[in-house]
Amino acid sequence: MKKYSLFLLFVLFLSGSAMTQDAVSILKKAEAFCKTIQWGSYEMDVTFKGLMSTDTTVTKYDCKYSKLESDSISPASFRVERHWEKKLSHTYIYSGEDFIYLFARDSTGNILSKELWPAEVKKAIKEADLFRPLTARSKPLFFSGEDFTDTTNLFITEKDEKIKGRDCYHIRIINKEKSNTSGFAVKQVVFDFWIIKDNYLPIQYATTIDMMNGNMPMQQYALYTLKTYSINWPDTKKKYDITDAPAYYRLKNYEPYQRKEQLVNGTTAPALSGKNIDGKKISLDDYKGKVVLIDFFYMACAPCILSFPHIKAIYRKYADSGVVVLGVNPVDKKEAQLRSFIKKYEMPYPVIFPEDDTTTKNYIIQGYPCFYLVDKKGNIAFSLPGFGQGVEVLIEENIRKLIREE
Q1: Facing residues of 78 across strands?
Q2: Do the domains at 21-253 and 273-404 have one common CATH topology?
Q3: What is the pTM of this model?
Q4: What is the architecture of the domain spanning 21-253?
Q5: What are the pLDDT digits (tens) for 192-246?
């Protein structure tokens, strides 16, 4: 009897071991389930933290979708409502031929033809932020096939959790393959999936990107959570098109933005004033008779961050020659974050925070960072939007030229 009991315990142990699933097995079953999904609807929250931010934002999406058999841009036709700060901000509709971009603030919208504007449509679809496990035709969990045996991917089964009251597997995938994005070294990318146990639907997933900017660690995080969903219900089996836009919206065909030229060299520099982080008023007029380098930036701008070491080097190199550097941030408003940001990046020169958008309009700021050099007479001497290799060399060349001028 005792031997039989031990044998039974041994069999139960083996059965339990066989029932324990590894991460890859769970992911494959979830992938197989996702591929059976053809149409449906859902409500989703997206929690996001940018590389340069310490705060998170939450955006809500309501979506109806129907997968397309073949499309060069999107896996599905859809109608997505985007809610920001508890208000409808945008509606996105994609039919497979046209993308309709609706603005709730003034009930207007643009119609973008995929045939005429494929790049613009592709970019706009990314803004719709579809819940990938439900809408993707292939690789609904980012990984499939050879990815599961790739040694650069580490698959981990974490402790089970409850999400929205459902028992879920928690699977983590760590990809340590290094690459470079906008000058940042990517240390690792982590994917987390919470998969419902009884049907293998991924109800939540997250992406975490760890980077290094020199010696400074940075992290970007996004969490996608389904609040409600329906799968393969007949009422969502359709292609969404212009008829799904509210009738009162004023629609027009898309017209590309006409980029304005930077301020012409030799023209008088527009007025520039604002307060620094301590509330002291600062004006461009305070520096008459000096060469002034103006750097327009904002906190979440990666190229801006990359430019800071070069701008600080220019500031230190030419300060004794009467050159002034002014940072201008017309975007960010939260004082605590701004103070922390300035301290973190050790900005030794004055930083101005304009009180309205007049400055950006007058200086024609169409991208960040944006640099202007003002000569000793108060005229624009050089301007350049964006930052990349060699930009600091151009700035220095023009500074040296202005210093030599009487």
Answers
A1: 65, 94
A2: no
A3: 0.72
A4: Clam (2.50)
A5: 999 999 999 999 999 999 987 767 788 899 999 999 999 998 877 899 999 999 9
